[in-house]
């Protein structure tokens, strides 16, 4: 096989794993936009609430680490959630640069409504529960590998 043939094959859009994941992400975002409108949340706000429902009170830095968001993206999200009465932000008395966030009673109560969303989303995938779990685990392994990857020289090693 010549180098040109390998390049032609790997440069087809339908052979790109990055595009397949991008398209799936956009499809998920559209689906979540519809179901989350019932809760009055955007998808990024929902992710913040998931982290807070799981951990209770967290620092902004810890939320950002969990969600892979920088403070410039996270701060406006938190301000909107606070303005909507779902979270409370407080500066640390010890270190005023540090801000903690926790759900309010209203934010905590929203968890009950959100509890039915994962089942609805899973059903929309057309996959059974085991397949969803397997796919999630494979994507998590892919993400971990990409986080530590060094870019290979061989075009056949990517895609």
Structure description:
The chain is mainly α. The chain has a domain at about 15-115: Winged helix-like DNA-binding domain superfamily/Winged helix DNA-binding domain (Arc Repressor Mutant, subunit A, Orthogonal Bundle). It has 8 helices and 3 strands. The protein has helices spanning about 5-10, 15-35, 45-55, 60-65, 70-85, 105-115, 115-125, 130-150; strands at about 60, 85-90, 100-105. The chain has a 3-stranded antiparallel beta sheet. A hairpin with a 7-residue loop joins strand 2 (about 85-90) and strand 3 (about 100-105). The longest helix is centred in the N-terminal third of the chain and has 20 residues, at about 15-35. It is globular. The mean pLDDT is about 90. InterPro entries: HTH_MarR-typ, MarR/SlyA-like, Transc_reg_Sar_Rot_HTH, WH-like_DNA-bd_sf, WH_DNA-bd_sf. Keywords: Cytoplasm, DNA-binding, Transcription, Transcription regulation. This is MarR family transcriptional regulator. Its main location: cytoplasm. It comes from Kitasatospora acidiphila.
